[in-house]
Records
---
Amino acid sequence: MKVDWKGIFLAILSGSLLFLSFPKCDLWYLAWIAFIPLLFSIQGKTLHESFRLGVLAGITFNIGIIYWVIFVTVHYGHFPIYLAGAVMIVFACYLGLYCGVFTLLISYLEKRQLPYVLTAPFLWTVLEYGKSNLLSGFPWENMGYSQHGVTLLIQIADVTGVYGLSFLIIFINCLIYDIATLKFKRRVFIEAAGGIILIGLILSYGSYRMSSIEKAFEEANDIVHVFLIQGNIDQAVKWNPEYQKKSIAIYRELSLEATIGNTVPQLIVWPETAAPLFFQEYSDLHRDIISIAKEAKAYLLFGAPSYRLEKEGRSLMNSAYLVSRKGEITGKYDKTHLVPFGEYVPLRGLLFFIDKMVEGVGDFTAGSELDPLEFGGIAAGVLICYEGIFPEISREYKKRGVDLLVNMTNDAWYGETSAPYQHMSMVIFRAIENRTYLVRAANTGISAIVNPLGKVVIKSKLFTREVIRGNIGIASVDTIYMRHGDVFAKTCIVISIIMLGILLRRRRQ
């Protein structure tokens, strides 16, 4: 059997260009041409060959994106390096299947005289939506997130979500491929004109929307002074009982230091599990945290584990507490979307040989309600760590009337890998989709303030001890995405089903 080295090279090239489009590399412009080698690789191939080349490109892409799984599983799961590598490869193979199904379907439709430009954008969007929702969902670095820094372009996310940008990227890749091959000659000029008009409309919408949103927030009467505390606590000692007092002392020092000056904070935010103790239990450390809010004369929002007693025993939760200026506990939120293998092990009966990565406590239990936390008449929606990459959570908060999104996280797990940068690139879109400010407090970084246009106003460096200060405008702005959710992606699903259904019916006839 002859090996198709050219096809293999082109598929690997596509996968490589794709992961280079994302942080840390952030060569976002490569996304607009990254699929072209893959389209050339499947030209004239059978459906089986197209599927295999798509899987190869997908695996290459995902290895470049999630290679940090090795770092996490070695350092915190205590896996031997070979087993950690195997876990990452298996995960990348699963994600690569979506790309394989994509090339299989577009190849099938192309053989029936349907050009890629009319099929691929819809099918990619459908598969990306499936990946984001199946098996608890993994929307990590969907294609549209590669454009997180192109502010004018990404304003369309308040209509289509990130899927609209993924659709556009695939459309442009296919258009360039059609022009390069002069396939469907009669249509290529119409396709090119359509592409130019589409991009023109999206950029025009972006310009209009940026102007109107800026105006709305400039006229906002409510301004909140927010201070974000990045404690930079070493993950190796964070859960050590002997280090708890020192951790709180570090946060005390930074929080009170932040109050020195002309601007008095209204809200101080600490990261996820910044307090590595059961805050609900009255102790010296509990009283220390209460005193910090009193001394700072500010609301204090911080992360800590909590529990509730049930017949089966104690259920642990990853929580956020809000303490008022007077030292009263005025709100609590329990994380609703847990990290598989990080906070619990799914199918533990089958995967008994795998332990989770979070040290210091047992398996967490998911909270049941998205409860906004209120301070001084302002409602905040709390996104703990992983929840920031799920747009439906932020959207539900916005529907419940929140004025501000707060992402508290601990990305120390990822070390100096690209994961903290990738994580940050995704939460930017939550601010655009809901047209609210988003503030982010991370244990080791990246802490940041993102405005409703998706611009990062200020951010910290990784593995530094910092205080981020900012003024947050409060304005009520509705969006199509907030009202209707992923209607764009669901429309793509309907169109794809109709398209495939018609062709299958014709084939039978």
---
Amino acid sequence: MPRVLRILNRFNLGGPTLNATYLTKYLAPDFETLLIGGQHCDSEKNSDYILRDEGINFTTLVEMKRAIGLNNDIKAYRKLCQIIREFKPDIVHTHAAKAGALGRMAASHLNVPVIIHTFHGHVFDAYFNKVTSSVYKNIERYLASKSTKIIAISENQKMELCEIHKICAPEKVEVIPLGIDLCKFKEDKVIKRQNFRKVYNLDDDEIAIGIIGRLVPIKNHDLFLNSFKRIKDSTNKKIRAFIIGDGEMKEHLKELSSKLNLDYLNTKGIPQNREKASVTFTSWIKEVDYVLAGLDIVAMTSLNEGTPVSLIEAQAACKAIVTTDVGGVKNVVVPNETALLVPNNDLDAFTQSMKLLIESDDLRNKFAQNSCSQVLKDKFSYERLCNDMRKLYFRLLDENK
């Protein structure tokens, strides 16, 4: 049985952890997998529970941290080399930047037959200045030369990697979209919606707009709040905003809400005394299917994205979407059928599009119905992901014989 060493930056809530979970579980018994993740960040939601719920064993490499630190990075590299010597993998598959750098260097040093790296996103846009971005690009070009195959999670991401950032030749890149378990989003939707709206004291005629994800600069929640403020001051519809997630920008976003004269609640769990406000900070909610059932519109304002899981889940839950047109978004939604796409960080355009979905019940319902398409569910199913990856693994192993 071929052995796979799978290495992630860390087990935070999002696509990489979900993909690692399904690939580890469902590629067995064809492949034996050892799963390694770095140290969890306090500012992010720890998603160890996803792995535990699926009965998956994993190892945390505490020296592999999000921030660059020479001492810890050297220790993490040495430990990965030790793990490779002991486990003797046929394939090392890394996910995201830090794991990709340390894991591929260790695998190359020890002559692992097949080395694969998945870009779940990239840091070449909107993260750093041009000089720093150039340094990271050169590092990724070197690492790509040590890789058997690079996996992009969308056609758009492949284009960016190969044509814009020149990381590697197109023939080295395989496109394998994310895959997740979407079944729960169509189960008990009416009951889940009633429960969510009861907990957050939402009236039947109130339109709930939610944005789901880490509260970090790249997600650009400022755009969401500024747009919501403009719409609230100009519409006759009753609207409320829900910011689902947590992170380093939370205090800033609360201050911004105050500056915009938006009353807000900061809750963890059930709000007390059936309080309600224009904006509710819910922190992380594990049951995202329950959240999506209760919302009417899902927004995303990111400056950069790989393949946004929140938008895949929103469509599985049959919700209308308004989003910035960044990264792999176009490969996830169906423009003007399930989602309105607007230019990156364009307040006027975002406000206009979100207001259109708010004020047109017919358009909002049409987008919601389109989102329920079985084609979208099949495209992003974990079964498809595992089948694609299984075929790729066997092909690369055969080519290496």
---
Amino acid sequence: MRRLLLLNALIFAVLAAAVALAYYGYAATSGETSRDRELALMEDLAEEKVLNIEFLIDDADEKLMREIELDELPRLQKKVETSGAGVVSVIVLDEQLNLVPSGSVSTQPEKQAKAFRDWLLANVLPQLPLARQPLGERGHLYLNLDRPYLFSFMRRVSEGRTFYILIEDDLFHLVRLCEQFFFITDESKRLYQVVDDRGQLRCGPPFRDIGEGLVVERRFASTWDGFSLRVAQKDIGDLDLMRRKRMINSILIGGAVAVILGGLLLLGAAIRRERRLSALKSEFISNVSHELKTPLSIISMFGELLALGRTKSAEQAHEYAEIIWRESVRLGRLIDNVLDFAKIERGADMYEFEDEVDLREVVERAIDLSGRRVAAAAMTLASTLPEEVPPVRLDANAFTVAVLNLIDNAVKYAAEGKKIEIDLARQDDRVVLAVRDWGPGIDPDEHEQIFDRFYRARAIRLKPIRGSGIGLALVQHIARAHGGDVTVTSQPGEGSTFSIWLPIGGKS
């Protein structure tokens, strides 16, 4: 019954762990699907934002460059100021790439503006494909030197004269556009930032507190080429709480996996054990059937001889009757063992304890009951029983069965030793009963197994000796029910000593 309950509990634990894993798998799949949808939405959003910003920059620069005419250069400063384009400086060059008079405007101080213009004409101008630029179309060049630069340029023709317009775009204009487009309240689910090609943050907050949020990135293609717009999804809720939840989920998933693996291993072990027990039960049934059949056959044969009067003398009739009585006692003891073992299997309460029982008297009674069995096996039984033994709380009948089983075990499996010794003594706070034989002994590897149900030692199985395999299991159960236990000391070829110890005064 207990094994069945444990097996059911194990199966329930494995099923619960499997359900938990299935739930987490479903939750993970659902979360992944939601994550993919959010990722696609954020990619579309980032693409839209980049296109909008670049359109504003491109459109403003192109509109300004289309409005510039050679005969209106004295009004160039005003055109720049009213164009709405975010520029730092504008330079107009003739067909030979020389500066046109009044063709330079800058928001910087004059000295700084002249130095920058000279640097631009000497270093940047050679990199611009001005002559190859399609007429009236905006081109651009991004450079990241000591700082990021964006140059827009256009080739124009006015009154048959070719000229070129070169614009240095204002980085802070991009920042202002970003702030305009990405003004986000605290309740927003997303964060925005712009970084340059060196990873330096140019606009927006740092992404250090986004937790498990998603991040997508889109590069600017027609303006600040080295810059990227990054969009991140913020975690909703406390970050520490999310981390704790993630840790708890990891522990639960790991625990579920461990329970399933451990449960499968234990189930496998239980299945192997049940198979072994099934085989042992089959052997037990065979052995018990033989042990029942043997005394029944003897009783039947000698009973028939007595019934038919086939005896030569009264002494022979007495001998036949004694054989019938001895075998009937043997048969009754075997049946009692089987019935007691069946009670153990059912978990039935089979003991009737009494206080202050004289253990010496119980052992003496068991020795007397075994006298004929020992004598029939041509063995001797010596006992050492002290005059005074501390009283114990005991079921006298059950303990008698335990002692009889140990003596019968010695008679059956150690008959060639010709001798059995029984010793009863006090050891500290317990009383120990030792039954020793001089038989073949037991391998130390089997000392624990011999107390298992239906188990019989390997050396015995090789001999033509029948046995039920429940005697020692019953002895162990009786000893433990009394708060004690049974142990064995044995080596192959040196005999065996089985010791039952009981606590003095009662069950501990």
